[in-house]
Amino acid sequence: MPRPHLATVVGGGPNGLAAGIALAQQGVQVTVLEAADTVGGGARTAELTLPGLRHDVCSAIHPLGVSSPFLRSLELEKYGLNWLYPEIGLAHPLDDEPTALLYRSLDTTADGLGEDGRRWRQVFGPVARHFDSIADHILGPMIRVPRHPFLLASFGMRAAPPAALLARAFSGERAKALFGGCAAHAFRPLEKPGTAAVGTMLAVSGHTHGWPVAEGGTQAITDAMTGLLEELGGTIVTGTTVRSRADLPESDITMFDTSPGGFADIVGSDLPRRQRRAMRRWKHGPAAYKLDLAVRGPIPWRDPEIGRAGTVHLGGTFAEVALSEREITAGRMPERPFVLLGQQYVADPSRSAGDLNPVWAYAQVPHAYDGDATDAILDQIERFAPGFRDRIVATHVTSPAGYEAYNRNYVGGDISNGENTLRQLILRPSLATYDTGIAGMYLCSAATPPGAGVHGMCGYHAARRALRHLDETG
């Protein structure tokens, strides 16, 4: 009997685990090496403020996780993962108009957008109806032959322009702001090409599969993936930092759930010059500055409907959100930053303790920002929820430097593992996508297609590339 192929995965984030699972499913013997004491990367949950309150450390809301073709194929519910859905996926409050609300139902959403309801259906309805048919292509390398070219073209017409251009399809502020807040997840000026892709994908994913949370915390996704990998015969070794190739065991293939620069540091001069330049010139983008808050009772939103939403975008009008994105990209801290707020306890009361609720909120700030954004975040919340400060019982701050210390892939506090410029969206970080220039070594982190998010698709596609290498070399 020939020995099984051996694979080492460096980094136990969602993509590293996904790569390990995809390889183990094909009979490859997988060992995951994780520097921290637990696996999970950006998919961890901890008691950051007070005992009994469960806060998601980084990723918290999962429209792409529940939409991911790979994660859906794993049936992680058998390993304890349970998706919970708030009544309203997303709320975007405005000062002078009713709150814009994103429901799983496209029609219910459109009905709440007044004069723009018909246009919302026209823009997002055709893609939502066929999203599952093209999700594998959207959540993968951009340069490849599509299985559904006409359906993908329909998405591309909406995704390719700047978000600011697509927003012109709407005449009212509610629809513009709702779409703009989704597009702002790109951490890019909304006037830049490709930013509409992020907004379209999140809106359509919300209409197709919703914006759920994982019961008990995002850690449940990690735990389910870990359970499956171990059932498939995989081994996970924590507390092990890989600093050079000398730290790697003998393997037929090695997967790196690391930043491009982190990979280059490990392999050093073994990396061909051209690939070394590609890895070293990988540019990291704006950062996250996060507050985890223990709050007594519900958030006192001026509009009670917001209290039914799992996610809240705090940025005001489309123009305000666009200004904030331009500022952070230029390295300036906005007076009113775009803030993402999660009240996961709305769908998942297990996160709370008595009348204390965990609130998750981060502002988009400049790369490696070393100031204090606490008041700016609280001001944005208080703007739409007067009296909120009075309900705060405890606070935990994660600055950009804190995020980098927590996860070396988050360079300068960039939780996306790379700036979403058009060049990097296409190349990520080279035309070879997951290949590194060293035979048998592959990059599988969020720096590869399709980018950031707890969806596992980076690891899945990288593993498929590695499996082709094994077939080619025997």
TrEMBL record:
<dbReference type="Pfam" id="PF13450">
    <property type="entry name" value="NAD_binding_8"/>
</dbReference>
<dbReference type="InterPro" id="IPR036188">
    <property type="entry name" value="FAD/NAD-bd_sf"/>
</dbReference>
<protein>
    <submittedName>
        <fullName>Dehydrogenase</fullName>
    </submittedName>
</protein>
